[in-house]
Amino acid sequence: MEEKLIRALEATGLSVYAIERPETIKNCIVYKYSESNESYSDDEADIESYKIYVNLYCESGLSKNKNLIKQSMKSEGFGLEFIAPAYKSKELATIQQAFTFYYVEKNI
């Protein structure tokens, strides 16, 4: 799942980081995710679900980057759950946009 997630995010053309970004990078995507087992068969998880948290940081081009993220995640099979209101950080001189996606995977 993580390879699929990174591939989707890198398709936007922005730098992608797990958990946190370097302080000097202003235009990038930061992701983290949680996972849970939804179904068991023979004492093994056969369906796993993931909740993916994506933060976009940009100095400009919020609408363009937001659409790139939504399209690239959708093309890799991730469902959009929620987009939080954008936030502008004056001290960092960036706009921050948070997304929540989901993904369900069968283990065969």
List the helices and strands and how they pair.
Blueprint: H1 2-10, E1 15-18, E2 28-41, E3 44-58, H2 62-75, E4 79-83, E5 87-89, E6 94-106
Parallel strand pairs: 1-2
Antiparallel strand pairs: 2-3, 3-6, 4-6, 5-6
Low-pLDDT stretches are none
Question: What best-fitting shape do the alpha-carbon axes yield?
Answer: elongated
Order of helices and strands: HEEEHEEE
Per DSSP, what share of the residues sits in E-state strands of 2 or more residues? over 45%
**Share of helical residues:** 10-25%
- The total count of helices amounts to 2
Q: Radius of gyration, Cα only, in angstroms?
A: 15 Å
Protein name: Phage protein
Organism: Clostridium saudiense
Overall description:
With 108 residues, the chain is an alpha+beta fold. The protein has one domain. Helices cover 21% and strands 50% of the residues. It is built from two helices and six strands. Strands 1, 2, 3, 4, 5 and 6 form a six-stranded mixed β-sheet that branches. Strand 2 and strand 3 form a beta hairpin. It is elongated and about 55 Å long. The protein starts with a helix and ends with a strand. 18% of the residues are buried.
Briefly say what this structure is.
This protein has 108 residues and is an alpha+beta fold.
Which characteristics define this entry?
108 residues, alpha+beta, 6-stranded mixed beta sheet, 2 helices, 6 strands, elongated
